[in-house]
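Record type: ASSEMBLY
Status: queued
Input:
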Amino acid sequence: MSTVKRHKVILDEKEMPTRWYNILHDLPTPPPPYLHPATGQPVGPADLLALFPMDLIEQEVTTAQYVDIPPEVLDVYRLWRPSPLYRAHRLEAALGTPARIYYKYEGVSPAGSHKPNTSVPQAFYNAKAGIKKLTTETGAGQWGTSLAFACAQFGLECEVWQVRASYDSKPYRRLMMETFGGVVHPSPSELTAAGRAILAAHPDSPGSLGIAISEAVEVAAQSETTNYALGSVLNHVLLHQTIIGEEALRQLAKIEETPDLIVGCTGGGSNFAGLSFPFLREKLAGRMSPVIRAVEPASCPSLTQGTYAYDFGDTAGMTPLMKMHTLGHDFIPDPIHAGGLRYHGMSPLISHIYESGLIEAVAKKQLECFSAGVLFARTEGIVPAPEPTHALAETVAEALRCKETGEEKVILTALCGHGHLDLPAYGAYLAGEMTDHSYEEAEIRDAVAEALTRLPSIPG
Ligand SMILES: *Cc1c(COP(=O)(O)O)cnc(C)c1O
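Status: finished
Output:
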């Protein structure tokens, strides 16, 4: 008798979670506060009001276990949520593994990634506070696209500084941002003091997320009706992304599975946190015990090679000081194809949880990642964004370990975006023109050590 394989678990709209989960409530110890760079004192709400609306500032610090998702946000979420959870039967078969591999697919969103999960509430709370325009940075263009879409939903203007390397190599992302109504500048730009300073020193600068953040923050800080929106790193962003894990928990419960391993890629940490934090809550409560593993690029290895120290979130040093795993705020990583993972730091919350020993981290080189991405495309039929190919590379490696040991591990991974606008990267890989990175490991270590000599000192 043949049995019909189940490929995906779909939740009904009525089953969509209506609350975000806040892990600050359940951590054994709280993370260190953000500090004011001039005084060395913890940052208060008043310090953040120039950039963020009060609702988001409150979400940044609240220790309530859950935050209700506003009905207006739920209504936009329903355009693509709940997102599907897939069992990767065909990838498993190709690998010959006894492991059961599941992936939560966020590529069904308007931007093709998980980012609208936070851009939509951020635009909503800003519009509610009377703000007229949001500025932001974007790497590969995913976040800029997501914010442009969200601003269009709530009648806000959107101005985006896109890292020069991506601006040049990914023209379709810019067109998508513009289609959603956004205005896009390459970064570094002549429009800001931060951009002009970088260009004066390095006229050919490929840019970095840190530089683009400096530019967007500078512009937002100068106007009462303009705010800034960050696509990752901060607590409120991670909070919004937990809808991913809350859905996945329900989906796995429906088929009576519990994960043994959860794998996600980490740039600033938001898709990884979004999937894993609700499972970490279950783990801390003793209801399951998955290993939770972050995967970062070998050429931007903040968790595995960075220092846990107070640093700026941007290159020019305009943000509060955040204690995080950092490569140094002026570290400029290789222009690898996973533009969304080229951030010098890591979410302070993820960093704290990593220091607490609750999660693991590994680093992967891009050829292994694209090899896994191509295998995934050929078996499962989805071309992954370059970022989640890092998680897929680790998933494949783990599934092959299971093949050796015969372990029937349940692996859950975040397929946080599709790669339809990243096809030139696949083209380079398929043509055999992709290299792992120009830095050798020792050079990375030296570049990091050098950038770390410029960590800010804490006043007071
Ligand atoms: C932005 C982005 C990332 C990196 O950001 P995180 O906050 O670490 O999730 C990863 N994957 C995709 C598809 C992205 O768009």
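Annotation: The longest strand covers residues 157-163.
Annotation: The radius of gyration is 21 Å.
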